[in-house]
Amino acid sequence: MTKIDSELVRQLAAVLDDTGLTEIEYELDGLRIRVARTARDTLVTAGPTTSLALNPNPPSAPMDPASNPGTVKAPMVGVAYLLPEPSAPPFVTIGDDVKVGQTVALIEAMKTFNPVKSTKAGKVTSIIVENGAPVEYGEPLVIIE
User: Fold this and answer.
1) Number of Cα atoms under 13 Å in the Cβ half of residue 57
2) Which CATH number fits domain 65-144: 1.10.10.10, 2.40.50.100, 3.30.70.20, 3.30.230.10?
3) Which of 13, 59, 72, 127 counts the most CB atoms within 10 A of its CB?
4) C-alpha–C-alpha distance, residues 12 and 65, integer Å
5) Nearest residue to 33 via CA among 45, 21, 22, 23
6) Which residues of 27-64 are buried (b: 16+ CB within 10 A; e: fewer)?
7) E-only strand ranges, the chain
8) Tens digit of each residue's pLDDT (9 = 90 or more) over 57-101
């Protein structure tokens, strides 16, 4: 097993903090280090099998929205919009009933607006993303119960 350079891991974690990124990967001479930040902790992997948590005992937190079965997640990286245009009402608000296939947001990627559609019918219980916020693939946007 390759010895992990803890100073390098700290530097990569600092890059995450400084840039707002959630993941960074570094490779040199066959050693690959991946540092990824989730809502609860930061995971470091070196090579194909080694991983360690920088914060192995995170404080108790409410349920992760990403694990909720009613979560509508970002299908791509881009900027999320909750309104069809600046002067229009939002696609959905908390308490709205939605149908399968109903647009709940837009994601702008490469100057194209892509609709994000509800994958289930139900009531909107939470809107997690803010209008105009950058989002990553798989990031929770809206919860429908």
Assistant:
1) 0
2) 2.40.50.100
3) 72
4) 26
5) 45
6) eeeeeebbbbbeeeebbbbbeeeeeeeeeeeeeeeeee
7) 23-28, 31-37, 42-46, 50-53, 71-73, 78-81, 97-98, 103-109, 112-117, 122-127, 134-135, 140-144
8) 444 445 566 666 678 999 999 999 999 888 889 999 989 999 999
